[in-house]
Every structure is written in structure tokens, then in C-alpha cells.
Amino acid sequence: MVRRRLAAELLESGVYEDIADDAAVIVSELISNALRHARPLPSGDIRVAWTRQGDLIQLAVSDGGAMTEPRRARATLSSLGGRGLGIVESLADGWGVLHDDDGTTVWATLHSPHTSNGRSAADPPQSLIDQPTH
């Protein structure tokens, strides 16, 4: 449901279908990782957010954190898992992890190719950095 809603909103905002599809896959992988590996936020939920500012699409999934740091694993051919952040890394222009008192946010950015704002995709989205912590 989140994946379809994200893709529909991005398409409606003028993002190319291929980019909207990539964003939907990224969010799906981040949600799967949060559900599989982390605790929920203090509210009992995980938080999924996305924004589009000019050509920059910002995606984020927040959870209550885990015992290990989110990192890209080196999956083997016989591995049953461990590919999620590798998929995110291959589709996104940048991704990273932010921590606050409530937990962990894994973010990713994508650029739509039709405009440019000069921002580095490897930087955390400012809207994520500026989120108040409760």
C-alpha cells in the first residue's frame, strides 16, 4: 500500500515512471529491513516519509533502532537475505543512517533527471536533519 501510494504521488508530481518505481522499491526494502531487524518507535510504529523538493526525492524510514547498525551486507548466491541495502545502494543516489533519542532513520535520495539544484545526493536530506526529536 505504501509502495503504491508513493509511486502514485511521485507520478502525479511529474516524476518519470522509472524513477517513481525505483523510489517505491527503495521504500519497500527500507520498510522490510525495519520490520525484520529493528524495534518499533516508542509509539509502536515505524515511520515512513517522503518529500520532493525540486529534483530531489527524499525517502526515509524511521524505527526504534536495533542492536546492530544498518549496513550493506555481502550476500552470497545461497544467502536467503542480506540484499536489501545493496538494492537501495544500487538504485539511490545516496543513502545513510541518522540516530536520535527515539531510534534510527535510514534515508535515501534520488534525483529526477529533468532539473538540477546543485545539492549532493550523498548528503542527508535537510528535512530529516531538521526533524524535532521528542
Automatic annotation (TrEMBL):
It comes from Actinoallomurus iriomotensis. Keywords: Kinase, Serine/threonine-protein kinase, Transferase. Gene3D superfamilies: Histidine kinase-like ATPase, C-terminal domain. Pfam families: HATPase_c_2. This is Histidine kinase/HSP90-like ATPase domain-containing protein. Residues 2-109 form the Histidine kinase/HSP90-like ATPase domain. Residues 110-134 are annotated as: Disordered. One of its GO terms (molecular function) is protein serine/threonine kinase activity. CDD domains: HATPase_RsbW-like (cd16936).
